Each structure stands twice: as structure tokens, then as C-alpha cells.
Amino acid sequence: MDAKDQNFLKLIQEPEAEASGCSEKSTCGTSAGPADMDPEVWDKVKNHPCYSEEAHHFYARMHVAVAPACNIQCNYCNRKYDCSNESRPGVVSERLSPELAAKKVLAVASEIHQMTVVGIAGAGDSLANPDKTFKTFELISKAAPDIKLCLSTNGLALPDMVDRIADYNVDHVTVTINMVDPEVGERIYPWIYYNKKRWKGRDAAKILSERQLLGLEMLTARKILVKVNSVMIPGVNDEHLKAVNREVKKRGAFLHNIMPLISEPEHGTYYGLTGQRGPTAEELKHLQDSCEGEMNMMRHCRQCRADAVGLLGEDRSAEFTNEKIEAIEIKDVAYDMTAREAYRDKVEETREKERKIKEMLAGLGMEKGLDQAPPILVAVATQGEGMVNQHFGHAREFQVYEVTAAEAKFIGHRRVDLYCEGGYGEDDSLTRITEALSDCVAVMVAKVGGCPKKTLEEAGIAAVDAYAFQSIKPSLLKYFGEYTEGVRAGRITPKASGGQTKIRSGALTGPGQIPLTVIG
User: Fold this and answer.
1) pLDDT digits (tens, 9 = 90+) for 15-62
2) How far is C-alpha 238 from the chain's CA centre?
């Protein structure tokens, strides 16, 4: 350890004044709000971007890669490959020591006031590296006591670590559970390493499943919120995940995140090299919908790298390389608690205003009988803060909502190729974007050029920039009312399955008289 890291350790291990930042309250959750859950749970999830769909618009997370070793092998994982433009679990560009990780957290949080959560998700398994994981948590707690701590694990070592997890006030844990039937599991896991022995086949899967479910029960008994991740593998565990959903609900899991398999052959995974396909967006949504009646579903996951920094859907890790962090003098880091608290206060004001506007719009829709109209899908280009605030040509993903008169429900995101490169539009990219949004009746953007707007409308997708820099969900509810009234008046031909939406020139061009901007 060099002199700079020693000085940092000395600084955070000395007695400190009472912190004035966040208390035990934290973040996250589903699309639910404070009226939908116990106040104690809401306090834990309201600012956590992975546990709350609403929070992920406003708050950032950071993963610190201090856990390189893993105790199982998954057919969808290859941690040796790394591309700086790749977003995939297990991928890191640089590993960290616990001391450097804590220093990096302090440096990042001083610049990104939205950052509320630090997680350990690899590059291996956090609990296969317990000393490094818990040393990191100890240092972060002293350096930045307002930041919430969470970890991700495959669950094999979990039952042995639950007491330590609770002792370190880690109240959010993600467990990856892909099966509860060893016959399915042996097709996903070639081997596990348990009790100083390598186990293979069905025996390995049986041990892993039993340990995962036991660990889940032990966590929820201590009121630690658990998110279960499951990788959807068509033809392997896709139908079986309904049984997984039921079993994890029985054991008290708070949230279930069913993710698509990433199986591009260039990643070098077993599934990638053997041609195992991932699910389509429609297949994924159908499975999520079928499980949603059992428990809360997470749909806003971005399958982040193990060193990701920033809002979900963005990665700022390149701004905070090891070289840059090592060069920082800790005395020069301005960890401004006042600014961090002010940001959280602003977000809470924004959310409360947005709820009132949504209630008003939903009431107006009921009065007009719009509650009988079928739902529509609308895509949104956003850079965060719950706003329609991104140019169409600058979007690398679009967030997709299912909208009715009463609710705008986030159902997923569509990653796309950048349309504008160096000031010029790419026709091939536009074609792929149009295909990715083919089931949407509209895409809301801050701005859009004439050429892509025409191409989108020819494909039956309205390019709507009238809600630029407005809040997303109220804008979607307002748009639904105008769209539905346009259909009823004959100005719009509704989009049938596989069909197009025809929009008369000039239709749906303005947000009306209801103020939708609630941030600022």
C-alpha cells in the first residue's frame, strides 16, 4: 500500500463528527410508490436505482470490482473478455483493492451527487472473496456513511455469510437464481467449488440450489431486502423460471429480475460458442408478464458491468480510472454532504409534484372514459432525471412504456446503434432503430430531424418532440389522452398487431394546457 492510500486509511479510521447525511433510509424498488408498501421498506428502496424503477431516473449506482474469484462456472459467463464499450455482468477493466475502492467511492460521490448506492458484483462472486468484500464495506461506511451498501452473489456461500452481511448493515442483496430443479441446473452450471471439492452435473446443481434458497430465507428473516436475478435461456429454463418465481416469492424475495441471456459468440462463453440464442424482447416481456402476478418484477435492469459508474444505462467508469484515483490527494476531495442532501430534497419535491400531476391526468382520463381504451407502447429518449431530454440522434437506448389512461408503466429498454455520428445520420442505424421500436406507436424525444421523423412516421411511429424537457410519466399520460381522442375522432388509425399507426399531419403536436415540467 503506498503512502497516499495509508493517509486515506488514517483519515477515514479516525473518530469523526456525527454524519448529517442519509440515515438507514435508502432506495429503490419497483414502479410502486410510498402508498404501495410498508414505510420501512419504502425508506430502503426509494433512492436505490436497482430496486425502484422510479428512482432509477434520478439516482446513480457504483460497482467496485474488488472480488475477482468465483466458486461456480456458468455457461453464460466469460470474465476474461473486456471491451470498454461492452455492458455485461462480470466485465471489468481494472480491479481494485479495498483501500483504492473506498478512495474511488469518495472521489466519485464528490462529483456525482446522484450516486446513492455502492455494490460489489464481481468480477467474480462477492462472497467467494469475503475478506476483500467486507473490508471494502468497512472502509466505505467510514468514508461515506450516507451511501447504501449492497452486494450480488450466486448464493453458494450465502448461508455462511448472512450474519456478516447483517453486521455490516448491508440491507440490499441480489442473488442470481436460475433454477430450482437440478435437472435444469446441470444444463447451466458445469461445476461448483464447495467444501474444498469440485462438484459437477446434477449433484453440483442440487447443492447450489439448496444453498441459494436457504440463504434467501435467512436474509429475509433478518429483513434484508433481496432481489433475485434470473437469466432467461430459451429452451433451457425459460418455462422453468415460472417455478423459480413462485419459490423465491415463498421465501420472501422483494423483487424478481428476469434478464435476457447475452450470448454473442464474440464474448467467448459456452452458450455463445454453441449457438444458444437469447430471448426476443417479446419473449422476455411475455415471461415477465406471466410472473408479475406472483411478485414484483424488475424491468429496468441494464445488466451492468462489475465496474459500472453512473445512472443505469450509462457508464462513466472511464472518467475514474485507477491511475486517476491514485493521483488524487484525499485532502482535495470535496465530499459535499450539503449538495448531496440538496439533490435528494429536490428529487423528493419533483416526485411529489409528479404524483399529483399523474393523479390529475388519470382523473381527467376517467372522466372522458379513456379507461376503456386499449394500452399503447411509447418509447422515450432520456438522459435521466425522469425527463424527455435527449435528441433522437444521440440516443443509445430508448425506454419503453405501456401507457393507459391511469398509468405509464415501464416495461423495458431497447438498446440501439447511435444514429448521429459526427453530425451525420446513418441510414443503417435508422433502419435498426425503426425495427427495435416497431411495436411502439410513438417515440418521445427532445428533438428530431426531418429525415428520421419522416422515416419513423412511414413505419407507423410518431416522432413526438412536443414534450421536450417535460417529465416522462405525466407526458405519457397526456399523450395517451390525445392519442385516444384522435383515434375516436378518426384523425389516427390505431396500430394493430404488426400494423401501422397513421397520423394526420399536425395531429398530436402540443402538450396542451396542463403544465408537465416538474423539475427545476
Assistant:
1) 333 332 233 333 333 556 665 667 777 677 777 767 676 766 778 778
2) 21
